[in-house]
């Protein structure tokens, strides 16, 4: 537990144990919300998780659930940002403010920082009734807070230097070498070093080519990728948008590179729980790729997978399964049935069935993924181990008293005989 979050838990304890009634707001990312829910799950608090019950906000749904638990005084509403992704939901929330109060219960709404922004702007009536707001931080956010002061450094303005002739050639070569070095650093997972090299290359290229050149857009894109890897989502969003602005102007909206950027920016939004934005950008990218590349293209299949994951994160399992299977068919057609990327697709489909409690169907897909990875990489490879654990979990849910290792060995033996 992050030390400064202890105060947050103490405040939650006060709300749960001493506060009579009211509306409270907790700001935390989805991982932290899972931690909070896990801590209070076994107590007298009842939890409604919008990830488990995907839907827009309707007071009636909440009221009916509360009415089935008359002895309960405190209710935690987790992943509330999923329920307020559009104006209609926010309006319904505003109108139900007094009705929520009239239930005379303690409601603790858990939402991300994005959800907090949505509420403060789009549901002010509801927001004004919040008695207390608590913020929980993850590791990265804590480090960022500590670094804020060190970032506020005022630099002396530099004199402009003209590059001509031989110096110009040298600077171009220098930028080229910096970009190559940045890629090497990235491949070795030295992300901060890669980022610094790219920033230096960007400075040179902008001076040589101007700020609206496609080469600038590509460096911006690579920087955004670096920031995303390091969970610096604000910076990643900024550089993806900067890259997009150039690409849309030079290449137009319907270009594969522009689609790639839409999809990558969607990934940043997804990680922050901004699912509507992520969904819209994924769909935008998909339309471009279907139109320009066609359905039977690996980039299109990647887009189906990414959009499916956004659906999966919102609990839209039916939609996710359709797209995961579509991506699987395309990948099988292009790569063949025994490619390692196919194993990932089988695992994705299995995950949807598993979370829906369809363990037997999930096992079939997990096994297909496991066979590919086992033959290709062996049992000790991280990807193989991950699928192995997924099979084990699904098997024990289906047959809690069964001998998992024996069952798996028999399945693998059947595969050899075939």
Residues in helix, %: 55-70%
Overall mean confidence score, pLDDT = 88
The number of helical runs is 20
Work out the number of β strands: 5
Poorly predicted spans: 146-160
N-to-C CA distance = 50 Å
What is the beta-strand fraction? 5-15%
> Helix and strand succession?
HEHEHEHHEHHEHHHHHHHHHHHHH
Envelope shape: globular
How would you sum up the major sheet?
Answer: 5 strands, parallel
Radius of gyration: 25 Å
- Strand order, largest beta sheet: 2-3-4-1-5
Structural class call reads alpha/beta
Structural summary, described in words:
Helix 11 packs antiparallel against helix 12 and helix 17 runs antiparallel to helix 18. About 4% of the residues have low confidence. The protein has a five-stranded parallel sheet with strand order 2-3-4-1-5. The radius of gyration is 25 Å and the shape is globular. The chain has 20 helices and five strands.
């Amino acid at each position: 537990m992050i030390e400064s979050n202890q105060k947050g838990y103490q405040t939650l304890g006060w709300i749960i144990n001493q506060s009579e009634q009211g509306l409270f707001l907790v700001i935390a990312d989805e991982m932290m919300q899972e931690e909070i829910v896990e801590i209070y799950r076994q107590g007298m608090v009842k939890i409604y998780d919008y990830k488990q019950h995907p839907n827009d906000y309707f007071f009636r749904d909440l009221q009916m659930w509360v009415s089935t638990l008359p002895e309960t005084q405190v209710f935690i509403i987790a992943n509330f940002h999923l329920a307020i992704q559009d104006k209609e939901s926010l309006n319904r929330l505003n109108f139900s403010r007094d009705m929520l109060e009239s239930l005379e219960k303690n409601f603790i709404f858990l939402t991300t920082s994005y959800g907090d922004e949505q509420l403060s702007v789009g549901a002010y009536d509801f927001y004004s009734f919040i008695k207390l707001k608590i913020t929980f931080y993850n590791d990265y956010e804590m480090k960022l807070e500590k670094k804020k002061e060190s970032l506020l450094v005022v630099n002396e303005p530099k004199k402009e230097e003209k590059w001509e002739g031989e110096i110009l050639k040298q600077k171009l070569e220098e930028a080229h070498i910096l970009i190559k070095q940045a890629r090497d650093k990235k491949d070795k997972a030295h992300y901060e070093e890669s980022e610094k090299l790219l920033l230096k290359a960007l400075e040179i290229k902008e001076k040589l080519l101007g700020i609206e050149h496609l080469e600038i857009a590509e460096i911006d894109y690579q920087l955004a990728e670096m920031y995303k890897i390091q969970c610096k989502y604000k910076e990643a969003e900024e550089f993806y948008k900067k890259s997009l602005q150039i690409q849309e102007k030079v290449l137009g909206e319907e270009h594969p590179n522009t689609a790639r950027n839409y999809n990558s920016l969607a990934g940043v939004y997804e990680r922050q729980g901004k699912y509507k934005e992520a969904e819209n950008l994924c769909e935008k990218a998909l339309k471009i790729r279907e139109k320009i590349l066609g359905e039977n293209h690996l980039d299109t299949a990647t887009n189906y997978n990414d959009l499916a994951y956004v659906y999966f994160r919102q609990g839209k399992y039916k939609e996710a399964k359709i797209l995961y299977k579509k991506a699987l068919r395309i990948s099988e057609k292009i790569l063949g049935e025994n490619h390692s990327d196919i194993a990932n697709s089988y695992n994705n489909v299995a995950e949807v069935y598993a979370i829906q409690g369809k363990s037997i169907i999930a096992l079939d897909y997990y096994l297909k993924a496991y066979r590919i990875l086992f033959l290709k990489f062996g049992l000790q490879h991280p990807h193989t181990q991950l699928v192995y654990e997924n099979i084990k979990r699904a098997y024990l849910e289906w047959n809690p008293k069964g001998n998992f290792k024996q069952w798996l060995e028999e399945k693998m033996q059947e595969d050899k005989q075939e």
